[in-house]
Structure formats: C-alpha cells, structure tokens
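QA checklist item 7 of 12: single-chain prediction sanity check.
[x] sequence parsed
[x] length recorded as 101
[x] structure emitted
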Amino acid sequence: MEQDNSGAKFIYFLAGLSIGALVGILFAPQSGKETREFIAGRAEDGREYLSRKGRQYREQAAEYVERGKEVISQQKEHLAAAIEAGKQAYRAESQSKAAKE
C-alpha cells in the first residue's frame, strides 16, 4: 500500500501559513486596515483548506471502513467454510472408525 504523507504536508502548510503571515505583517507596506483584511483573507483560506482536507479524510476513512467490512465478510465466509469442512472430515473419520469396529 502506498504511504500517505498528508499529515506531514498539513504541518508544513500550517508552518508556511504562519511564517508567511508573520513576514507579511512585519514587512507590509499597507495600512493597518489593509493588513487586517489581508490577515482575514489568509485566515479564510486556511479555514477553507482545513474544511477541504477534513472532508477528504472523512471520505477516505469511510472508504477504508467499507473495505474493511468487505474483507471481514469474506474472511467470515472462508472461516465458516473451513469449520464446515472440518466437521465433515470429523464425521467421515468417525463413521470410518465405527464401520471398522
């Protein structure tokens, strides 16, 4: 299965967002109002990103749960078939021993 680095990417995104906002505030040639609007816009971008990622992770988790249910169902069927085969083998062995006696 392919390794997912989404957690690390998310941390890098937050770090970049924070550093970018801080540098932008410190070196901004804008007025205070413009700076506040800029910060509000970046915060909204961050919220939208988090919302998108949250939806993506929920969908991915639901997919994994569904796949897990399918695997468990298949394994239950295999186990039930193996148990039934074992019972039949035991009955056949018991009948074979009874016939010899």
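[x] summary fact logged: The chain has one domain: 6-100.
[ ] second reviewer sign-off
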